């Protein structure tokens, strides 16, 4: 837990500012036994969709820890929305949990989960697809990545539903990972990308079928390849996000161009 992540409803206000009583057993245990916190120690804190700074421990008890937040938390400082969005064929529940954590940790703006031909229908009945469990996975990833930005998650039970959703929004740079394709992210000119979101489609176990690849192509998705290995969805997501972040931010690779931003210029 690299960040004590708090929800706005957990905060208390008094004449001295803002404080929180941490009662979650996992967080209390981590603060006590991993961080070895004592009264007066500062720890890094963040409010979901808002400020990151430090808090000072003012009280320790067996079941709770009181943390007084810095004055910076009196102002709302929302996090920057990440540039990369994902479309993912719904993976098996354990993989989905990892995918959500890794994506939130590394930084994506939103995750569009879609039921495609190779998605097991039983996956749609999984408790992991309940929004409460999705949020828990995202929060764990946010703690790890030290960010307060929570990715938006949508669930589409058909490609038609996904298409209707995408047709309502401005055209972004759209990419689809597909084995055997000659192009790579480097050859698609990502280092020249200056602004606007990048939407990447990652297949379920077994990948996309040919007619699904054609479907994405009709929506403006360009194919690329990340290597010869066949990867699980959560591993592919990490590989793709890492490559994109390098191509979108590295000054040497971008030959002097500014880092890319999500907002359209």
Helices and strands, with pairings:
Blueprint: E1 4-6, E2 11-14, E3 17-22, H1 25-34, E4 42-47, E5 52-60, E6 65-69, E7 84-89, H2 93-106, E8 110-114, H3 131-145, E9 152-156, H4 159-167, E10 173-177, E11 198-202, H5 210-218, E12 221-224, H6 233-249
Parallel strand pairs: 1-4, 7-8, 7-11, 8-9, 10-11, 10-12
Antiparallel strand pairs: 2-3, 3-6, 4-5, 5-6
Molecular structure report:
- Specifically methylates the N3 position of the uracil ring of uridine 1498 (m3U1498) in 16S rRNA. Acts on the fully assembled 30S ribosomal subunit.
- GO terms for molecular function: rRNA (uridine-N3-)-methyltransferase activity.
- Its EC number is 2.1.1.193.
- The protein is α/β, with parallel strands linked by helices and about 260 residues long.
- It has 2 domains: about 70 residues, Ribosomal Protein L25, Chain P (Beta Barrel); about 170 residues, Alpha/beta knot, CATH 3.40.1280.
- It is built from 6 helices and 12 strands.
- The strands form 2 sheets. Strands 1-4-5-6-3-2 form a 6-stranded mixed beta sheet. Strands 9-8-7-11-10-12 form a 6-stranded parallel beta sheet.
- Helix 2 crosses helix 3 and helix 2 packs parallel to helix 6.
- It is globular.
- The mean pLDDT is about 95.
């Amino acid at each position: 837990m690299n960040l004590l992540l708090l929800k706005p409803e957990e905060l208390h206000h008094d004449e001295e500012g803002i404080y929180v009583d941490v009662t979650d057993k996992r967080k209390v245990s981590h603060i006590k036994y991993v961080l070895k916190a004592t009264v007066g120690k500062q720890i890094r804190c963040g409010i979901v969709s808002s400020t990151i700074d430090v808090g000072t421990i003012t009280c320790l008890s067996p079941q709770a820890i009181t943390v007084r937040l810095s004055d910076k938390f009196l102002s709302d400082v929302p996090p920057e929305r990440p540039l990369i969005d994902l479309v993912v064929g719904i993976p098996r529940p354990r993989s989905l949990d990892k995918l959500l954590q890794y994506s939130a940790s590394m930084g994506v703006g939103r995750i569009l989960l879609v039921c495609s031909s190779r998605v097991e229908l039983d996956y749609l009945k999984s408790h992991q697809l309940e929004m409460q469990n999705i949020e828990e996975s995202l929060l764990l990833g946010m703690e790890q990545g030290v960010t307060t930005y929570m990715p938006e998650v949508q669930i589409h039970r058909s490609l038609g539903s996904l298409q209707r959703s995408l047709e309502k929004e401005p055209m972004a740079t759209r990419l689809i990972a597909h084995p055997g394709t000659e192009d790579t992210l480097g050859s698609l000119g990502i280092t020249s990308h200056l602004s606007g979101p990048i939407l990447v489609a990652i297949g379920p176990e077994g990948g996309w079928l040919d007619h699904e690849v054609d479907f994405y192509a009709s929506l403006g998705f360009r194919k690329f390849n990340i290597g010869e290995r066949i990867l699980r969805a959560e591993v592919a997501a990490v590989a793709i996000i890492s490559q994109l972040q390098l191509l979108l931010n590295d000054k040497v690779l971008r030959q002097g161009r500014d880092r890319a931003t999500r907002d359209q210029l």
